[in-house]
Amino acid sequence: MNGFSREIRSQILNATSHITIRSFNGTIRDIESLLKTLNQYPEIIGAAPYIMGQGMLSKGGQVKGIQIKGIDLNQTNQV
Fold first, then answer.
1. Full-model pTM
2. Phi, psi (rounded to 5 degrees) for 76
3. N or C: the chain end with fewer CB closer than 10 Å?
């Protein structure tokens, strides 16, 4: 792997979760309990919840579908 490939790979991994945990219906009810369980593993260096949804943007006559990801800014330093 050359330097350029290594840098691209690093940037992608820095912006993307290594693991995502989701429920079947899209809602995790007891997030605090799940985070407490995950943080017991020394291999996990950080975990934080997020929400994800879909939206729509329009300008002029154009309409685009988008995916929205929301994070808790108070927990971003953990991940």
1. 0.59
2. -65, -25
3. N
